[in-house]
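Supplementary Text 2. Reproducibility record for the structural model of the 251-residue chain.

All settings were left at their defaults, and a single model was retained for analysis rather than an ensemble. We include the record here because the model underlies the residue-level annotations in Supplementary Table 4.
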Amino acid sequence: MSAFAALSTANYKASVRDKTTVFFTFAFPLIFLVVFGLIFRGQQVEGSGRNYIDYIAPGVLSWGVANAALFGIAFTLMQWRNDDILRLIRMTPTRVTSVLGARYTGALGVGLVQAVLFVGVALLPVFGLTLAGSWPLAVPVLLLGVTAFLSIGVVVGSRTNTPEAVAAVANSIMVPMAFLSGSFLPLTMMPDWLQNISRVLPLRYMNDGISAALTGDGDLVTIGVNSAALAGFTVVFGLLAVKTFRWSNNS
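Retained model, structure tokens:
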């Protein structure tokens, strides 16, 4: 078995054993979808003609997937470094690309499962999400979003040394971004200066791209522009991740 396959298998087994992590990864974001979906059931976003579920489902999905990608890699890198696992891996023939690649594959798998679960629930008659014919294009946007937030998570995990620090930094990134990027509230409800701030946040482009694909709220150009923006964020934070990555707390 290759190093990549062994690490991927180990990551999977460790993930499914931790029931708390499984719950918060899948059920916790889904609670937001159910709550908001029931509160605004049958209502439309003022002035847009869109049903609230068409707006909420892509936003909550994007936030949940991005949250899982960032937190997952950040906590793992911090813990592995504190336990000297990374240092031990460095002393073996295993390459860092195998280590990060195994986590990346796991994050993509989690993101796809989350997407299927969220969309499946939103399609229930009680919520009434209607998929556009372009819905398959949500998959590449989703994968690009996972990649971008995984890159951010590597930076967070490389610069923090305790679980408390990871949680504080990651929440400081994800909670404001959720509201400023339009995951829970329409951007049109915000003042212009906040809408301008949202243009430098990757979650906005993930929201907009997935929404355009799932609900038809945008064309191929919209999906392409948002995908390109996510690719750009991946490059920027990927380079920063390479610069900040540490094998041990002493390096």
